[in-house]
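Hi, here's the filled form for the chain we discussed.

Project: internal
Contact: R.S.
Residues: 198
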Amino acid sequence: MKNQTKESILNGLAEILSLAKSEEDVHSFLKQHDVILKCLGYDWVWSKLPLGSDYITDFVLARTFSEGLHILALELENPNYGGVFTKQGRPNHTLATAISQVADWSIWIESNKPLFLKTIRKNIQRDYPIDWSRTPKHRLYKLSQIKLGVVVGRREPVESELTAELKLKYQGISPNISIMSYDRLIENFERQSFLWFR
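And the returned structure, exactly as it came back:
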């Protein structure tokens, strides 16, 4: 991000989103410009954080609150693969696969929560030393909020009420999994980037 302006990053993001042939193209750009993800409201971003030997996330984001952590694990999909839902109201194959994958992450994290939080704490201490001595591990465990997200596709110019209703219905099945378009990254960056560019 050194020597780059908000405008140059925004233009680069718009270009990569329009030209990307796979999620790896976008991943590479976001890894180099992680301030875009921080603008979702997080302090730290890690790329390809493993969940044991079973899974590898695209990104894990974290921020502190009081004496715990807010954590968001993200799965990226191709921004140009098409609509998110079919006309019948079902997730397209790409989205369904991504949701299934992050649901597996959720099961792994819940089964290995102390290990997962220990890994996050180590990464935070490595990148930004924090005095955790006043925070008992059991309290940090209880207060940590872990969510998962899928970033996929581009927002339609006008969302139909049916599509919005289906999104809410589907997210109700997996309340810890959020579905967002890449346009949300752009909007949050436009609103929050003043925190990094003064």
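Let me know if anything looks off before we file it.
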